[in-house]
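Lab notes, practical 5.
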Amino acid sequence: MAAFYYPWFPEAWKQQGYNPFSWYTPSIGYYATTTAVKGQIAVMQAAGIEAGISSWWGQGSLTDSRVAPLLAAAGTFRWSLYYEAEAYGNPTAAEIRADLAYIGSHYATNKAFLRVGGKPVIFVYASGGDGCGMVDRWTAANTVGFYVVLKVFPGFRNCADQPDSWHEYSPAKAADHQAGFSYAISPGFWKRTDTNPVLGRDLARWATNVAAMKASGSPWQLITTFNEWGEGTGVESTAQYGTAFLSILGGGPVPTPAPTAAATAPPTAAPTPPPTATPSPSPTATPSPSPSAAPTP
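Output from the prediction step:
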């Protein structure tokens, strides 16, 4: 299993006039990524998550500055990156190749970087308007030997060029199965700017989806997400639900009685500029296949 992970805290707690920018309160408080990551890795591993897919907004971005600390804290855990820029433009093959070369030289040589068949793994976010042209660009760009997992789009199976694998990132959908490639599940979706959840939290449904994902045998079994708190999709322990979602993921029973379903609205604050890397909503896998907006930073 792998989980989508967001390394932009504490910056992303304050944005769009909210402080914190979340309906939920992490059990460890409104943390900083660099001080929290070691403990987060431990709880992910306890739940059976073997790898994190960390949001990456390009060379020199806030999220780029967090990659080295994630790798340093990894131990036996593994990290991949989620290439976000594809969803907000159409980077050329040359631009993609330059980014892959950068990731390869700065991070992929680390033993904690996730590999499949010896190749470093990169996940790629995409927009709803992407098509086979995106696949062509990534095929042309990948002269440096990455294992590329693209985001699906209508008709993706019919493209002449094909990446190493495919995934879906749809956090407002409880479960998504891309046969032969991936199975992704989300605990819920409640963006801080929304009055009501788009996908409410239901522990019984979560348990059913966890079981179906594990039984699917999908090469990539994906949790959407570990800690995208701006969109309220995290499975990380919170004051509202405790460790219930992680416990079920690790094979535990549905708690009885179930934790309260309603999150407590946090205080608001005067508008604060968003973080440097400003993501908009974007996304487990076994390390080897048969392996936002989040803060709108």
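Observations recorded by the TA: Residues 32 and 173 are 28 Å apart (CA to CA). The mean pLDDT is 91.
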